[in-house]
Amino acid sequence: MDIYSLIMLFFVSFLGTYLYRKIAISRNILANLNFRTLHVNPVPAGGGIVFSMVFVVGLFYHWWLNQSSNNLLLVLAVGGGWRYSNDCPCLADYSRGLAWA
Questions:
Q1: pLDDT in tens, 54-87
Q2: How far apart are CA 87 and CA 25, in angstroms?
Q3: How far is Cα 85 from Cα 79, in angstroms, rounded to an integer?
Q4: Between 94 and 79, residue with greater pLDDT
Q5: Which of 4, 26, 57, 78 is the most buried (most CB within 10 A)?
């Protein structure tokens, strides 16, 4: 992977994190404070979704440039997509106040 692809993925990740943070705060998707957290104030929850999406998009881009095999794409992208799809229902629980304590 060339340096331009890495720079592009960095900026996509940065922009995605920024946009997700704004959406999470506006929709009240916040991690509740409990005995396990070190935060003083509530923070947005679910930021890993952005990194999962950037990972999967980066894999498809890498595959599209014929720099990786179909087997690698299937193993990593399908696994990453499955991880992303499992995070989405949890965010709905956070926004409704139904998250695990």
A1: 887 888 888 888 887 887 777 776 766 666 565 5
A2: 17
A3: 10
A4: 79
A5: 57
97: left (phi over 0), alpha (psi -120 to 50) or beta: left
Could you write out the three-class secondary structure of the chain?
Answer: CCHHHHHHHHHHHHHHHHHHHHHHHHCCCEECCCCCCCCCCCEECCCHHHHHHHHHHHHHHHHHCCCCCHHHHHHHHHHHHHHHHHHHHHHHHHHCCCCCC
- Residue 50 CA, chain-centre distance (Å), reads 2
User: What is the biggest distance separating any 2 CA atoms in the chain, rounded to whole angstroms?
Assistant: 48
pLDDT for 12 beyond 80: yes
Tally Cβ neighbours within 10 Å of residue 50. Answer: 20
